User: Which sequence fits this backbone?
């Protein structure tokens, strides 16, 4: 039954995406806010489908830690769930995403209208500078900037060193950085299409105020996220 429900969810997501493309393809010529509304509606439907079909819901904690206007959200990365859910949970965020996602059939063109921050995984100096410039523009417009410091999805209980990009953002933008801990990997495992029933928890933690040096910043960020992720993991799997 688990496999049937997971397959049904994927089919429902594809069907919904096809319907959205047919109905809303003119949005590629519309103002950016129209693309944002369409993608956000699609993702809300996806979260609803995940709950109804797979029995997988979510809980949000720590909303009071989110500043007004532009800030950095640094989230640990365990599954695809946080990639699209943060676009729903935050107010018009810009996620730092690999550029290949722009070419998702049909919907990719509408996603491009939402003005996310596309990066080349090759990580050249010019691409890094473009990323920082775009993030600065986005943040000045009052939009949150979302980054996954590990740079890739990490298995439950796994660890990856944080990439330098998160500190580059923090230093350039001069805004607070809000760590976000999530336990999605227990229910939507990395590199797996199977979805397990339960409740994903995402928790926004105490902001790291601007102006800290590199060592202090990484110490605060890693310490906060490690504790937060471990706490959420224990809630799911006490043993």
Assistant:
């Amino acid at each position: 039954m688990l496999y049937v429900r997971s397959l049904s969810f994927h089919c429902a997501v594809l069907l919904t995406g096809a319907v959205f493309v047919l109905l809303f393809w003119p949005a590629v010529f519309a103002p950016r806010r129209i693309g944002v509304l369409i993608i956000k509606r699609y993702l809300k439907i996806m979260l609803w489908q995940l709950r109804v079909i797979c029995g997988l819901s979510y809980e949000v904690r720590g909303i009071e830690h989110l500043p007004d206007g532009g800030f950095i959200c640094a989230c640990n990365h365990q599954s695809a769930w946080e990639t699209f859910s943060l676009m729903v949970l935050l107010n018009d965020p810009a996620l730092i995403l690999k550029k290949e996602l722009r070419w998702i059939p049909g919907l990719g063109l509408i996603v491009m209208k939402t003005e996310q921050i596309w990066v080349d995984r090759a990580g050249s100096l010019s691409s890094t500078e473009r990323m920082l410039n775009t993030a600065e523009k986005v943040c000045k417009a009052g939009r949150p900037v979302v980054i996954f410091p590990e740079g890739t999805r990490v298995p439950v209980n796994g660890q990856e060193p944080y990439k330098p990009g998160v500190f580059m953002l923090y230093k350039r933008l001069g805004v607070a950085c809000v760590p976000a801990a999530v336990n999605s990997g227990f229910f939507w495992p990395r590199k797996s299409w199977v979805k397990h029933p339960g409740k994903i928890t995402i928790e926004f933690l105490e902001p790291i105020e601007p102006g800290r040096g590199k060592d202090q910043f990484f110490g605060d960020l890693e310490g906060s996220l490690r504790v937060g992720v471990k706490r959420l993991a224990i809630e799911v799997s006490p043993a």
Observations:
- The two ends are 26 Å apart (CA to CA).
- The chain has seven helices and seven strands.
- The beta strands are 56-61, 72-75, 94-98, 117-119, 145-147, 177-182, 198-204.
- The first helix runs from residue 2 to 24.
